[in-house]
Structure formats: C-alpha cells, structure tokens
C-alpha cells in the first residue's frame, strides 16, 4: 500500500514502484511525477524491450537493402540499446542530449532525444533513440482485417535532425564528405533560394533520387533510430487484445522510406516532401562546411507549414512496413504487463491517454 502526492511517496509495505530492468535511470519511479503521460510513453517502452530481452524475444527491425526495399530482421535488445539492458552498467537517460551528434549541427538550442543509453562505467552514450508508443489499429485501419492494421506515426522535426546526424557520422572523413557530396549531385549549388517553393519544387525528384543514392550507399551502416512499441486493442478500440504488445524498430534508412509514403503534389511542397528537402539541405551543408545550421534550415524552409512536426503517416501507410506475424499476433500478452510495471506503479498513472486509462481501469491485470 502506498500513500502518494506529487512530490513524496511513503512506502508502507511491499515493493517500490518501478519498471522492469531500469535499475539506474534519470527518472525516479518512486515519485508520481515520473509517471506522467510524456514520461510513461518513453519509459514503459524501454522496459518492454528489457523484458523481451529477459524472455529471449527479439524486436522486429525495419531496415532497407541496397535497392532501398524494406526488409524485416530481428535485433537483439543489447544491439538495439547498445548495451545489455539488464546490465549493472546500463543507465537509462530520458529527454537527454546525445553528444555524438552535436558536433554536426548548429542550433539555437541543442535538441533532446527521447532515450539515451549510457554505459555507467565509461560514462559514454551508446545509443540515442526516438520513442513512439503507438496504438494498433488506428482509426484509418480499424475496420480492416488484422493483417492490414497499422499505427499512425507522428515524426518530430528533431527526428530528422538526428537522422541527418546519423548519416553525417558515416561520412565524417575528408574522403567521406567528398563521396557524400558526389552522391548528392549538384542540386545544392543550383538552388539560390531554398525558401522559395518555385525554385525548389522543380528539383524535388532529383533531390529524392540523391537521398535514395545515399541510402543505397550506406546500407551496411544503418543504425536503429525510432523505437516503436505497439499496443493492440480490440476492433472496438475499447479493450486490449490478449496478445497485445510488441516492438518494432525503424533504422535511420527505414525512416527515409517512411517520408516517401505519400502521393506527391505537382504544384506545391507537402510536409513529407519538405522533410526530404530538409534532409538534403542538412547533408549538403555538412559536405561544404562540416556542419549544418539546423534552426535556420527548419525555419527558412518551412514552406507555409508550422515546424512543430515534420510529418505524419496513418496506419494504411505504415502497414507495409509493419506487416508480418508480429503485427497480427503481438508476442507479449496483457497478462505480462504486471511483470513490467512493478510495485503498483500503475496507481501513479494519470488516465489521460487510452493506454494509461486502460491500465488504470483494469486493476485485475496486476493481481
């Protein structure tokens, strides 16, 4: 039994509130403010990965081949996180700086990434990941067969920054920059006003081809970038399926493919197209100056849209990426959630979103 307020927790008996595997973390789960909706949406997925590791269940890695086709593989959780998630050396740092990327860009402020895994012995960051806890199905696919389900994904502008930096890190030598510059072709020097739709749009197809050339060139060097756990509901969207939890991981090159899943416009620049243009401009400037100006790129190349997000795609567009046995029958059951949320931690959740609300309203899952 636990008495709680926002700042203080008093343990009267039993196990302290916590999440599986996270012995060392920047969040103290004994306190209620570590269980807010924004915190839970990244900390629960990290523990789900650790729990799957303990059971020998590997997340699904969405990556690309040399033809830029999507392929599915399985990735060990220690390879995903850069460290054994149950190791004494594993530290989970949330909403944190990812120093390996910061040397590649200028910005008004350094952007935080959702999860940084740190080796406690060396103090070195070993992986930076964006985290997207998503519902399966979304409204666009709820009336379709299970095999056609998908989840909506909203991609933040900083995710594209991290994508660009991950590519820069693969070409961070004199020869590497020269090669990247050649792959990007001469488009960057042909555009004088990157903020002008009229100037940029005629070059879009060439920009896209150049980005795909870069992607094909670095197939063997792609790394995990987005951690996407899914929680599967009933067709009515009101209850969790018995087989309800699994984890998909998008490589940085798979994220490029995500941006291309829409119908292009002939007379305007869409959010998805703008994202590809942002990426090209960042990489082009890196080959010229050794760094790129992230703030200037995003603000100047806004093309009438707000810059709070890069783009979003619905479940019909994510389905081809997620399609497979794990989509139809996730491998972790709702009865195992009590093995991930420990010490009555679910009592600290605020039911502001459907997953949190479901857990709060179904105490029998924790008996």
Plain-language structure description:
The longest helix has 19 residues, at 37-55. 43% of the residues are buried. A hairpin with a 4-residue loop joins strand 1 and strand 2 (9-11). 34% of the residues lie in helices and 21% in strands. Helix 4 packs parallel to helix 10 and helix 5 (174-183) runs antiparallel to helix 10 (271-289). The protein is an alpha/beta fold and 367 residues long. It has helices spanning 37-55, 77-81, 99-102, 157-168, 174-183, 187-190, 197-200, 204-217, 252-259, 271-289, 294-300, 315-322, 325-328, 354-361, and strands at residues 2-4, 9-11, 18-19, 60-64, 70-74, 90-96, 105-106, 113-119, 125-131, 134-136, 153-155, 224-233, 240-251, 292-293, 311-313, 332-333, 341-342. It starts with a strand and ends in a 6-residue tail after the last helix. The strands form 5 sheets. Strands 4, 5, 6, 8, 9, 10, 12, 13 and 16 form a 9-stranded mixed beta sheet that branches. It has 14 helices and 17 strands. It is globular. Residues 1-13 have low confidence and may be disordered.
How would you concisely characterize the structure shown here?
This protein has 367 residues and is α/β, with parallel strands linked by helices.
List the helices and strands and how they pair.
Blueprint: E1 2-4, E2 9-11, E3 18-19, H1 37-55, E4 60-64, E5 70-74, H2 77-81, E6 90-96, H3 99-102, E7 105-106, E8 113-119, E9 125-131, E10 134-136, E11 153-155, H4 157-168, H5 174-183, H6 187-190, H7 197-200, H8 204-217, E12 224-233, E13 240-251, H9 252-259, H10 271-289, E14 292-293, H11 294-300, E15 311-313, H12 315-322, H13 325-328, E16 332-333, E17 341-342, H14 354-361
Parallel strand pairs: 4-13, 7-14, 9-12, 10-12
Antiparallel strand pairs: 1-2, 3-17, 4-5, 6-8, 8-9, 11-15, 12-13, 13-16
Helix pairs in contact: 4-10, 5-10, 8-10
């Amino acid at each position: 039994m636990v008495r709680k307020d926002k700042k203080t927790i008093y343990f009267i008996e039993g196990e302290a509130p916590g999440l599986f595997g996270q012995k060392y973390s920047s969040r103290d789960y004994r306190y209620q403010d570590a269980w807010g909706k924004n915190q839970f949406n990244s900390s629960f997925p990290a523990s789900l990965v650790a729990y799957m590791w303990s059971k020998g269940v590997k997340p699904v890695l969405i990556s690309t081949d040399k033809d830029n086709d999507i392929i599915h593989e399985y990735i060990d959780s220690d390879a995903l996180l850069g460290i054994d998630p149950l190791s004494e050396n594993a530290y989970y740092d949330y909403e944190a700086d990812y120093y390996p990327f910061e040397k590649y860009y200028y910005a008004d402020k350094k952007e935080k990434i959702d999860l940084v895994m740190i080796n406690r012995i060396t103090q070195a960051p070993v992986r930076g990941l964006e985290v997207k806890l998503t519902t399966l199905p979304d409204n666009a696919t709820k009336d379709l067969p299970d095999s056609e389900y998908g989840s909506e994904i909203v991609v933040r502008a900083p995710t594209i920054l991290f994508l660009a930096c991950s590519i820069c890190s693969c070409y961070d030598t004199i020869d590497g920059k020269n090669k990247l510059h050649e792959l990007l072709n001469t488009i960057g020097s042909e555009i004088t006003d990157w903020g002008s739709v009229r100037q940029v749009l005629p070059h879009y197809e060439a920009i896209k081809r150049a980005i795909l050339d870069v992607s094909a060139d670095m197939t063997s060097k792609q790394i995990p970038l987005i951690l996407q756990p899914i929680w599967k509901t009933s067709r009515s969207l009101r209850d969790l399926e018995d087989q309800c939890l699994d984890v998909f991981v998008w490589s940085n090159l798979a994220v490029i493919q995500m941006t291309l899943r829409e119908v292009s416009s002939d007379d305007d620049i869409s959010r998805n197209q703008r994202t590809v243009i942002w990426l090209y401009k960042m990489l082009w400037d890196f080959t010229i100056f050794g760094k790129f100006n992230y703030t200037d790129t995003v603000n100047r190349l806004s093309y009438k849209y707000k810059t709070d997000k890069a783009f979003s795609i619905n479940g019909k567009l994510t389905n081809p990426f997620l399609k497979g046995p794990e989509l139809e029958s996730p491998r972790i059951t709702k009865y195992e959630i009590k093995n991930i949320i420990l010490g009555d931690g679910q009592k600290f959740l605020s039911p502001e979103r459907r997953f949190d609300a479901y857990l709060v309203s179904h105490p029998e899952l924790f008996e």
